Protein 1
Amino acid sequence: MMSTKKILCMILYIFLSSPLIAKDFKNNYHLWYDRPAYNRGADYTRVVSRGYPYDEDWERWSIPIGNGAIGACIFGRTDTERIQLTEKTMGNNGAYNKGGATNFAEIYIDFHHTHAKNYRRDLWLNEAISTVSYEHKDVNYNREYFMSYPDQIMGIKIKADKAGALNFTLRPHLPYLRAFAEDGLGRSGEVIAANDLITMGGVVQHYDLPYEAQIKVVNFGGKLKADNTHGEGRIEVCGADSVVLYVACATGYELNEDVFIRPALEKFKGNVHPHEKVTQRIAHCTSKGYEAVRQSHIADYTALFSRVGLHLTDDVPALPTNRLLAQYKSGKKSIYLEELFFQYGRYLLIASSRKGSLPAHLQGAWNQYEYAPWSGGYWHNVNVQMNYWPSFNTNLAELFESYMDYNEAFRKAAVRNAVNYISKHNPSVLDPIDEENGWTIGTGANAFNIEAPGGHSGPGTGGFTLKLFWDYYDFTRDKQLLKDHIYPTLLGMAKFLSKTLVEQEDGTLLVDPSYSPEQVHQKSYYKTKGCIFDQSMIQETYMDLLRAAEILKIKDPFLKTAEEQLGRLDAILIGSSGQIKEFREEDKYGDIGEYRHRHLSHLCAMYPGATISSNTPEWLDAAIVTLNERGDFSTGWAMAHRQNLWARAKNGEKAHQLYQNIISTMTLENLWGSHPPFQIDANFGATAGVAEMLIQSHEEYIEVLPALPTAWSQGSYSGLKARGNFTVGVSWKDNKYDTLTITSNQGEHCRIKLPNTQDVSVLDSRGKKIKTQIARNNIVGFNTRKGDSYIVSFAN
Ligand code: FUC
């Protein structure tokens, strides 16, 4: 006979695992507005980093869509629509790192609907489709926009509810064209219309980089007229019922090692012109048909997005997103907005990071400037790492592969940089075989160039980056991946880091020179030996390397070096204020450096690292002192780091407060995060932070709701990920839960910390009771079968 409890558990299990019901865990998320985005043009009186005129309306009001490679910002206007197009490989010479992202094109559509009524525009996160609808002179107009990954195309459908009522002029524009000149800043381009097709393209002088976009117009009813009399080609649509536009774009960029090694003009030499690729994409979609293209997009996108459900409230205010945000800022905190902001981070990551194209950059996949702020780069002293934090715990691990591919492409240049770095700073340990010096990555990097460490951030930037690689393994437990990619990457980085260490009189090994990222003392970057960031990032890298070697049963002579050096790093130090020190020579908190500096590099060992945790209570207490001294207000990403750190301190109230601070002080109307200006890292860091409040697994066991704030006293989630490749779901009420569902995706041994272990029971998907081991601290362990799901319950 089954016990009542067992039967109840089975019913609950069926309930939780049914995909139909699991849908109920999700709100139908959308950002929406009752007016179009403003478009008042660049403001030359205000600048966005280093002199670029600020396009405030683009940054605050446009709606982003993307497929990893291409991003578009949609204004949803009724007079003249503006669709700003970005392609991540489209670059020019910029202020930073000898290059960076530049705006690909602007697509204008003149509707001249100046008296629109019943207007609204939405971005539907569940399907990644943006819509616009309004009434004008008794005709209802509808538009939808999406960016397809499988078909590498932007699909747009525009329709009127009266036959033949649709009239508009499609008028793309190539921005920032300049004659080729000695300064190398030229960009050629032309826009030509022929029948139902507009082709636009040219060459970026600095890289001799060809680029091309095509827009195909498919009209249902009415007529098309191509017009090339205005300098840039346009197509007039007259009297149509509906129109489909397909937009494809590409450049001659190919991601490979040459990009990072060759001089600017040689990088893309010999690559094929993008014309063929773009033409094929347009032809393919035209014959596939709009509905099929749209369906493929939805199927591809929902397979990622729908993995995670989070439900914190039923109270979904009927307010446009900008007003909801304004209310939030003025103190009326909507929990729905907190939920939406979490899922929006997942949406943005899917839209800006897919295999086959470059990783998500500082602005994700979106940039309207001639020179993107900070080059639209991959800044390795926190920003790019933060971009990928949510990929692991929010069940989007494979999105990290675009970063891995980028990293592997620049590896050869990174080996060269390592050789130069060691030759300069520690020549006595330089190995004559280049590869034996490993590889390195400094702060500055983008689609075209990478840097070595130095200036304001020490070599720990590489170890910080490696944490992502280790977590990719730890969350997937994919041994093949570990063997083929992650271990060699770790080994190379560890070899480099080992050569940045210099033996001191007392036997410790310290990074020299060393910098805690961007920390400033007496008005200049503070140069030292063995700052906590550099030392602790080496420590994390060595520990991960040794673990990887053990799993793969690898014997490499370097492992002995790592093991030996690990004991001499003396990485984490406590100062006289009870703080984790940032610098070894610091006594009291704040002795050296800015008191409230945005970076919290010395706590990277706590998050994303794991050396400071509840397993090291003294360090954890000291980390809390540091967090309190550093303060709760900073730039967007900096507060997101604090949010994750407070989550790791298991302080739900503080983590939530930081999350609230991000939304209240550093979030724009389109819910993009801000530094200022717009930087996407805050979105990603905050999304990771929410997951970190709801599930943790860095202490060798899973803990659900480790940092639950009282504001989220009831709710449920499904699909969040824990290390070991477990997918976890839980519902809670009054801050308490008594049942969990766990799916084991790799068949690993599972360990969970529960509030208590009284009457603990684990049932597999057939309702069979599984043998458990109960360890100290209410940790329950049990073996799992790959693919099976388990219900864990206990008396509460
Ligand atoms: C890092 C940060 C800055 C900024 C820049 C893009 O260098 O210290 O605050 O986010 O990246």
Protein 2
Amino acid sequence: MIIPKSTRFTPEQLNEVTAIVTEFGCKVQPIVGAVRTIYAIVGDERDELMINRLEGLAYVDRIDRIQSQFKLMDRRSDLASHRIAVGGVTLGEELFVIAGACTIDPKNPNYFYETAQAVKEAGAHMLRGGVWKPRTNPYTFQGDVKSMDILVEASRRTGLPVDTEVMEEAQIKVALDAGVTCLQVGARNALNYSLLCAIGKAIAGRDDVVVLLKRSLHMGPLSEFISAAEYIAAFGNPNVILCPRGTAPTLDGYRNHPDESITPLLKEKTWAPVVVDPSHSVGKASYVPACALAAVAYGADGLCIESHVNPSHGIGDDPKQSLTPDVLAETIAQAKQIWALRRGAAAARS
Ligand code: PEP
Ligand code: MN
């Protein structure tokens, strides 16, 4: 829909607008109102270049898009009935939990093996463990590919599928060859379009692999987040789980600005499941359970929680924000109650 700056286009302006949309296979249909006329674009209005050229005209106020720019991830797209099943759970049907260490310590693999067993007993469906780590400080531990063997062994011992972050193209193949089920795109790489394309291509057509796409610290409108998911889908695989994990600027006292409250807004726009990461959102173990429960109350399909059998002996984020397995178990139990309440309320409304 083209909205002119004045009450209607002059005949010359209408000719110019018509010439542009015609180049892109569309037509213009004026909609005459009592005080102003607006102009519908009839045809596929998703071509970015056409929109940019129209927006560049001095006499155009704005373009309101009717069609979604998300051909695959939109709630009304052909993929709307697509379901993602992982770790024995179809997302949306029961609360899905990913838990485990922030960072695998290659020098102390037993911590990770014990953590893996403990998070399984606490109710997690998938084990997380950072092999490669995006660290703000270049002098801190950056991860170690040797940890991949530990992740795989922990998966073998527990039977849990595993999630790990990939930061560059070469790591995608290493992770897939090792049998990683969930490729995590971290907050720092959520806007790295070449990585998103490479992931989509590497897992094209595979229904046994999913992507956990974190929300970037600096993402603006929600459409930017959904567009990042659209990249992965457009290049080959729609198994993308959206993961709000807090944004910048921080809320004083928390690690980031908690953003679990965007869940209902995401659900209005996309069919993609939402799994909230409260650990990076608030950044301190004592705040994590409340944030996790709030996320489920807001409608999240699952949670991704950092947990460690002995947080003070962990590395990376674990000493400050990992839950001990008993607190994790309690949080999962309470989150399931909120899930059941939500379900009950939804059933009563329908
Ligand atoms: C992590 O999951 O440990 C991590 C680094 O997450 P994020 O990309 O959200 O900071
Ligand atoms: Mn972490």
Protein 3
Amino acid sequence: MKILVTGGLGFIGSHTVVELQNDGFEVVIIDDCSNSSEKVLEGITSITGKTPIFEKIDLKEKDDVADFFKRYHDITGVIHFAASKAVGESVENPLLYYENNIGTLVYMLKELSKKERSNFIFSSSCTVYGQADEMPITESAPVKVAESPYGNTKQMGEEIIADTCKVTQGLNAIALRYFNPMGAHPSAEIGELPLGVPQNLVPFITQTGVGLRDELSVYGNDYPTKDGTAVRDYIYVVDLAKAHVIALKRLMEGKNQSNYEVFNVGTGTGSSVLEVIQSFERVSGKKLNYKIVDRRPGDVISAYADTAKANEELGWKSEYTLDQAMKSAWVWEQKVRNKS
Ligand code: UD1
């Protein structure tokens, strides 16, 4: 039961490696360390008592990917996180995103197609829904025109996998459409480590709380929502990691209903930006310095998941509340900053 986790040193990847190892799987990580550090291996080892195999490979190097699968012919499942994820950067440098996110996916699927049987989990995103017409969002909601090359790579990625599954008998795949991942492992041994100024809300809040940033800009308070700020579905990263293990087992046990399936991974609860700030203030006991600024271009008003399919068919449900997830993010942030 050797599982390849690409991008396994990243935020969601590292938490998934922990859950896989805790479940008895043997893990091989591929990561190019372009947005992560080998030090994450120490965190994984201290939580699980096991060090995963690590191969520093750039998945854009097609020959290295082929060579990897020759050396590890006993890989029975792949969880593919490795990808670039900064929306703004993708607008400025679309080819980087198409090469990193699409090129590498194609090489991976080519290798898996050569196997008699393979199981593949893909990191997709609720970004494929754009501004959905109805809340909560079900998996059958239409895919909207992508707002960015990053978003487009998730849509195209799903299509490439679906097309490949149609003609590849032994290939079984699940795309997990994540809502907004947040938090850190309860041990505070691994967590989110954004490079430079965080683009995402929760790390920006915790960095402001710890004094690394002066104030948070809240992007817009004139949205048609409960308090005027945009609404998202914040999912605890360990809950999200567990969804990957459950999805992988579903494929391994042949419980999937078709060889390509899609599931939302969210909590089903929408929280506004102000509610997320209030959650931070509750769990930290600190007032957060913030100001309201203009809307951020490309942001949707509201996105939260209908989780019925994931709950009933996949048999997965989120467990952590927003406050619990926020607490873990805060503990992690304080630990990281005290170290440096
Ligand atoms: C963003 C991406 C999404 C991607 C995801 C990956 C956009 C438009 N969307 O999701 O495609 O899959 O990251 O992590 O970039 N906010 C503030 N101030 C801040 C930061 C965020 O008010 O400094 C607000 C945003 O306007 C939004 C909410 O907080 O309403 C969440 O933002 P963010 O964490 O960036 O996630 P998304 O935009 O939902």
